[in-house]
Design brief:
It is a single chain. The protein is mainly alpha-helical. It has a domain at 9-83. Helices cover 52% and strands 8% of the residues. The protein is built from six helices and three strands, in the order H-E-H-H-E-E-H-H-H. It has helices spanning 9-14, 26-33, 37-45, 72-82, 87-98, 103-121, and strands at residues 23-24, 52-54, 67-71. The chain has a three-stranded antiparallel β-sheet with strand order 1-3-2. Helix 2 crosses helix 3. The longest helix has 19 residues, at 103-121. The two termini are 30 Å apart.
């Protein structure tokens, strides 16, 4: 059951992150992709996830500790590169699962979808 509207991969993965937040700590980035903060640090140092390190307080060359931050676009890029599916195939799989649900389950989902869409149009969602 195809809708005829292409799914934007950036939008597909961006929906996993909190709105309004641009920069993430290793722990926050790990929570988004379902991995540990150590995985994020290792991936940063091996070039799999792009980010920034800084210590804005100490004078240049005298930093004792640096802080790693990952931009939301870098997280999305990592998810795009590591996914073994497309957003379209994800939706097709979801539609396949939903086609086997009971009327009761579908009605509950319909209410959830309606409430979310209605709230979004009214600006109630963050």
């Amino acid at each position: 059951m195809k809708s005829g509207h292409p799914i934007d991969p950036m939008e597909h993965f961006a929906s996993l992150m909190p709105e309004g937040q641009e920069w993430f700590s290793p722990k926050e980035a790990g929570n988004i992709i379902g991995r540990s903060d150590q995985f994020i640090r290792d991936s940063f140092y091996t070039g799999k996830i792009m980010g920034h390190t800084s210590n804005g307080i100490a004078p240049k060359g005298e930093e004792k500790k640096s802080y790693l931050r990952v931009h939301r676009d870098a997280i999305i890029m990592y998810l795009l590169e590591s996914a073994n599916y497309t957003p379209e195939s994800f939706m097709e799989g979801l539609e396949s699962i939903l086609s086997k649900r009971s009327d009761y389950q579908l009605m509950r989902l319909e209410k959830l979808i309606h409430d979310r869409l209605y709230s979004k149009k009214r600006g109630y969602l963050k």
